[in-house]
């Protein structure tokens, strides 16, 4: 790790009026600084800022500095969100990691984290070895010939499924962006990962009120039971009335360069009976447009099965 200057602003105005990389839990930033992937000269410890709170009185509002473990345990948090958080990292890391930091975490692609290897995200124009190299963990959706790295956040998948927004603050004011639009697919500029502008900070996450999101879940398929990133994952919520799906929310992780909203699957589910046959028919469309690489074609079928499993889990115990 290289030397850097550390500051600790106590107000949002002070933090936004300064320069430097923001540090909250540090569970991603510090790792990347140790690897020399990131080498900021100035780091702002923002843990003293008033960006906390969990409010479930009208939907869900989560301060960006809330810790993952606290949000997962909070009453009234939708099950898909709690389960996504509890299947992330380890208990020790969840106690440290912030919600804003989790949403801003960088890819776990091994080429990105190895400064001796080319990587278009880290060094634009240098190339993407994953396209022809070791790519079992990489994306099959939203890729380009410049990048196939998966988005790492479990939480973001659940939030995208539930149509969450992020409130962004800056010296010029505030703006709100749907999380599904916040993340950018790589195209030919994979270094541009999100719509956070210079001088902006995530203030809070806002999930709209959705009473039937109590019928939601998050299913994560991985190589081992804990402390592992997803091969595939699915966040789903279903509104089932008299055995018929009135509405649905579905998103996938572990298979795309961004948290992948599956509107086509939602459309097929709406108005259909809540049966395994319906779930399989909807999930069959989940991998439309997929471009598997040499080592990850298995993700096409695994994604479909993961979505069916999540839908079945959501309807367990319902009188259908």
From TrEMBL:
GO terms for molecular function: FAD binding; oxidoreductase activity. It comes from the Bacteria. Keywords: Oxidoreductase. It comes from Saccharopolyspora flava. Gene3D superfamilies: 3.30.465.10, CO dehydrogenase flavoprotein, C-terminal domain, Uridine Diphospho-n-acetylenolpyruvylglucosamine Reductase, domain 2. Residues 1-212 form the FAD-binding PCMH-type domain. The keyword Oxidoreductase applies. SMART domains: CO_deh_flav_C (SM01092). It holds the Pfam family FAD_binding_5. SUPFAM superfamilies: CO dehydrogenase flavoprotein C-terminal domain-like, FAD-binding/transporter-associated domain-like. This is Xanthine dehydrogenase YagS FAD-binding subunit.
